[in-house]
Amino acid sequence: xxxxxxxxxxxIHSGDVKSLARALTIVENDLxxxxxxxxxxxxxQTPVIGVTGPPGAGKSTLLNSLLGNLAKKGKRIAILAVDxxxxxxxxxxxxxxxxxxxxFNHPNIFIRSLATRGALGGLSGKxxxxxxxxxxxxxxxxxxxxxxxxxxxxxxxGLADLxxxxxVPESGDEIQHIKSGLMEIADVFIVNKSDRPDAxxxxxxxxxxxxxxxxQIKVFNTVADKGTGVLELADEILAFKPHAGLKKIELLTxxxxxxxxxxxxxxxxxxxxxxxxxxxxxxxxxxxQFIETFMRSS
Length: 298
Fold this sequence. Notes:
alpha/beta; single chain; P-loop_NTPase; nucleotide-binding; GTPase/Isobutyryl-CoA_mutase
């Protein structure tokens, strides 16, 4: 099985897109050979760029425009678009490919959608694993677009070398409502839909807040659907160099932390847990007694 994994990775190294798609499917679904693929990976320095922000901020539209600019410069780019999984149906819309339809057939752009599988911060262990598989394909950049769910989105910091937080002028009633967690993880703030009323005032307030926090975070203004400001953002990404030294160790530590959590929870599926609770439920149901019994039998 290990030889098969190495042959598959060799095909990926040579640029075979079908082999890449197959390896991602194997890893995503924990099929036979998934562990062999992951353990056969060699470290790559491909920059991983996280794109996060609240729902409706225009992340996918911004990416669509940004990818067009980077592709024109001959860059090979992979996008892992993370879509939310419903906590009730456990299904996912996987709709980011539709919003990035302009780039879907571009030879230098590879788009893959992934469900969050219930991860609160919009990330799951599978996101990390699949990003590492994408690194084996020698892309110039890997973008991970994550679900905008606010404070818990800080998980992206353990995966991305560069984190871009997309906001809109009406992100909260006032600039003070920006979550402190987002302020801590952002390397770049993007005020999208900057042609809307009060956009300039919002940007001034954001820059003031950054100065008060003694942070060095760049702020870009864009109107993604018109392409405004996207060229400047593309230049910022092209100039970016991945972290080294202590920052790299911190990123690896966070990444390992998230993977260990994922592996320890691997055998616990939420839909099966719901079924067990349904079977055990009664008017005097005690969740702590249930958990103790459940953990012993797992």
